[in-house]
Amino acid sequence: MKKAAGITIKVLAGLIIIILIAMFTIPVIFKEKIRAKVETVINESVNARVTFGGYNLSFFRNFPNLSFSLNDIYVSGTGPFEGDTLAGFRSLSLVFNLGSLLGSSGYEIKSIILDRAVINGIVLKDGTPNWDIMKPSSDTLAAAGEITETLPEEGAGESTMKVLLRKFEIRQSVVTYNDASLNMSAVLKNINYSLSGNMTLSETDLKMALTIDETTVGMDGINYLNKAKINSEISLLANLDSMKFTFAENFFSVNELKLNFNGTVAMPGDNIVTDLNFGTEQTSFKTLLSLIPAVYMSGYEGLRTSGSFTLTGSAKGTYSDADSTLPDIKLNLSVKDGVVSYPDLPEKISAININTDVFVNGSNLDLTTVNLDNFHFELAGNPFDMNFSLKTPVSDPDFRGSFRGRIDLGALSKAVPMEDMKLSGIIEMEINMAGRLSMIEKEQYESFTAKGTMGIKNMLVAMTGYPEVLIRDASFLFTPAFTSMEKLDILVAGSSDFLLRGNVGNYIPYVFRSETLKGVLTLNSSKVDVTSILGAMSVDTTAVVDEDTTSLAVIAVPRNIDFDFNAQIASLIYDNIKAENLRGHIIVRDGVLSLRETGMSVVGGTVKMNADYDTRDTLKPVVKADFEMNNISIKDAFNTFVTVQKFAPAARGLDGRISLQMKYESLLGSDMMPVTNSINGYGKLKSDQVQVLEAPAFDKLKEVLKLSDNYTNTFKDINISFRISDGRVFVSPFDVKMGTIKMNISGDQGLDQTLNYLVRTEIPRAALGASVNALMDNLTAQASALGIAYKPSDIIKVNVRIRGVVGKPEVSPDFGTGGEGAGSGVKETVKETVKQTVTETVGKGKEALRKEAEEQGDKLIREAEARGQQLREEADKTAIRLKEEAEAEAAKLISAAESKGTLAKAAARKAADALVKEAERKGNQLRTEADKQAVKLADEAKAKKEEMISKIN
């Protein structure tokens, strides 16, 4: 007996040892197998880059199951989301049924835990999401015609990964969402979620719990939830075969507002069928106020309220992607005798009464109704009443509404704490409206009711990040056709005044269908200080890129505004620009701000201008201008305009007055100034005379030409044609006089201050220095000694090259294949002249022929250069026209797609962009071809001249 017992004990001990060994060794044995399987599943399933750090296996943590976890997982995007992180996890933990690892029927997962996940959802303007990373299945590819081979037999391709969940958890996680197509964003911080229940059964009880510490949801720059707390507990009976879920005792709360709900949700096929009812448990008015971001964040705990509040509703019907139907939604909100006061503030809002109900018909949105039967409150003894109703909102909005009362904004700021904002002033209104939108569209104004007035007195709005605005006096008269702005007297940023009068039409379609608001107004101002206004603004950054290529931030022009201001502004200040007596039309239309027939006095002269500031592409705003400046001071222009400083730095040392005609197009920088290396344009510059006060290139030129120090520094009769492209100014050949010296100048210079000019001079002998004249007398004597009658020419021709940079120019004579040193230019020219005279004496008649050939050749060259410039200008005009036509056509495409849905709008934008890019490409091709033809014409003329001269020689 003892022997048998001893054997039994030994066997048991051996089994225990074997089991313990297995518990330690099995995780090691299957570790690489499981890791390889996870890697394979991930890499074969997604179009993304997935990386993870370490991984762990444990047999003891969830005995007798096997625990597997991946640590430090990161999922980054590809394509348009290259470099963006879609998701990151501290760890992803899975619990496997150990028996399934030993069999061949697949792996069973019993629980999943996500720890400290960070999810970053992004949707582009065209509606493309960054989370659409799953590769299409074989069924999807076959349906799309991308797989044509015979499909495997049923069961042959079944997944080897089975999910038999009992628990799913998300711990301490963060979700961010940015949707550019809807201009919407959301941030959810410290998310904790748990789902538990036996999901291996056909019918089971499930429990869910959710907490989110901070929830912020914004759209169009407004936060509708601001750091709101979310809490929910849900118990439901789930039939996983029929996919029907029955809710029992459940709640969902936002801040202090708690909603209880019950009912069922079923998912037969691809549809979702709902039958839910919900309502508030609390009746305190304070719980409703917790949803208001400003109220909840500003002393909510100390808020004193009274009055009752109820909210009830239901969601019943079918959600279907196939026919775009939604459940019917009913909401009823009621507030009775509400009072709001803060203990530290002297005023209160009292007698708050609200009664509203909303019905949304999910299958036919045109049957939706909104009824705000009563909205009433009293502030500082002043009552305010409003009611509103809406029917048939889709086909033809039928609405009624009235607004009546007096609002003391100063009292409001004493009743509700307002961070970073100051309010004061009085708003009084009495407005009544009733009718259908079609009555306005058909101009049946006699059938539509719209009457009333609104007045504003001393309304001050001061907010951090915006200039202070004071509406000193305003009065509006409402009619069905338009709102008459009888007076709007505004002071902005303390010094800029605006007085507006006129009519604003289409305001009802603007409110209900976001159609274009139209107005014809007069604008008068004694002073507009743009620098002060922009200095008080914190402009939202739209892109952070190189300032030399595009802007850091822009002030977008609204696309659904069409205003024409007949403006008269006595003084306009913008950075260093100080303009006076500005008159013209300021037009705001379709995302473009335009100046038309605008004139002003600036930098001592006058300016006439047509210009466009185009923000339809907010990342790359464009400015186009066609202007004429007359009698402008060079010194003042240099000190005022950054563009002059960058493109013509030598203007610092010049004095005189100029007239300028120019057309150009450029990107606009964050300082609202042109990005200089993006400027493309052309123009003409004229001046009776310009005096050189300080210019290294001019000093070097006088040295090369051997001019005396006291020779004139004044250039006369200047007439320059130029074009700007790729950061350089190209100057066409032009004639100018400096004293008795004639010059023909051409070339180019760049933003990098590099110079490349050719100066052709004709210098009278009297203007030359003593050493040059002595050389000429000596050569004359030597020629006489040889029996040659030589009389020096009264005009010496010298060509000079100017290279280098503005601060350190390199000036040298040009002899076709190079030049001598800077001090020998004129002397060498004189020697060449004597040689030519001797040759003329030996070969009589050649000089006359040669001179005639040179004159004819020079004429051919000038004509070719003039024709080349004409070709360039014509090409530039055509390129600009092509782009303007393409932009107009693109705008039509986008406008036509506005009512056709998101996909149509995205397609229209893509087609519009392609249209404009193609026009730009053709325009650039025209410019390039014109340059080639211009160069070819000039080269052919030069070759012809050389041919004529060579025949004579």
Mind explaining what this structure looks like?
There is one protein chain. With 953 residues, this protein is of the alpha+beta class. Among the domains are: 1-134 and 160-182, no CATH class; 539-671, no CATH class; 695-835, no CATH class; 846-952. It has a 38-stranded mixed beta sheet that branches. The chain is globular, with a radius of gyration of 41 Å.
Task: Outline the secondary-structure elements.
Layout: H1 2-45, E1 49-51, E2 55-58, E3 66-76, E4 85-96, H2 98-102, E5 107-123, H3 138-143, E6 161-179, E7 184-196, E8 203-219, E9 222-239, E10 244-254, E11 257-266, E12 272-280, H4 285-289, H5 293-297, E13 304-319, E14 328-341, E15 348-360, E16 369-379, E17 382-391, E18 398-408, H6 409-415, E19 421-436, H7 437-441, E20 449-463, E21 469-478, E22 482-492, E23 496-505, H8 507-513, E24 517-525, E25 528-529, H9 530-535, E26 561-574, E27 577-589, E28 592-602, E29 605-614, E30 622-633, H10 634-640, H11 642-647, E31 654-667, E32 680-692, H12 696-704, E33 714-725, E34 728-738, E35 741-750, E36 755-764, H13 770-785, E37 795-805, E38 808-813, H14 825-842, H15 846-897, H16 902-952
Parallel strand pairs: 5-6, 24-26, 25-26
Antiparallel strand pairs: 1-3, 2-3, 3-4, 4-5, 6-7, 7-8, 8-9, 9-10, 10-11, 11-12, 12-13, 13-14, 14-15, 15-16, 16-17, 17-18, 18-19, 19-20, 20-21, 21-22, 22-23, 23-24, 26-27, 27-28, 28-29, 29-30, 30-31, 31-32, 32-33, 33-34, 34-35, 35-36, 36-37, 37-38
Helix pairs in contact: 13-14, 15-16
